[in-house]
User: Fold this.
Amino acid sequence: MNKGQGFGFGLGKMKELSEAFKKAQQVQEGAKKLQEELELMEIEGQSGGGLVKVVLSGNQEPKRVSISPEAMNEGPEVLSDLVSAAMRDAYLKSTETMRERMEELTGGLQLPGL
Assistant:
């Protein structure tokens, strides 16, 4: 090993590493803020043309279910299907919202698994 070369981890690489750490720290801070925003969000799913509505938070915590009188008149089996479909709709919307927000947050940062 030549004197002054260290371990082959030159100044340019240190700068890249430093920038990556800075970006990762920004993402971590942004993720904490995003989690707080998701908790406050309300995402509505519905079925039967609005006969049943389910509201989840942005992080998929159940908040409310609204069932119209018309849906109640459909009987238990149909009502169960309507509730399930509205839950699925809300879940898909909340998953898409989380994915989009995480992409915004991590834009430009190449992290494995994100």
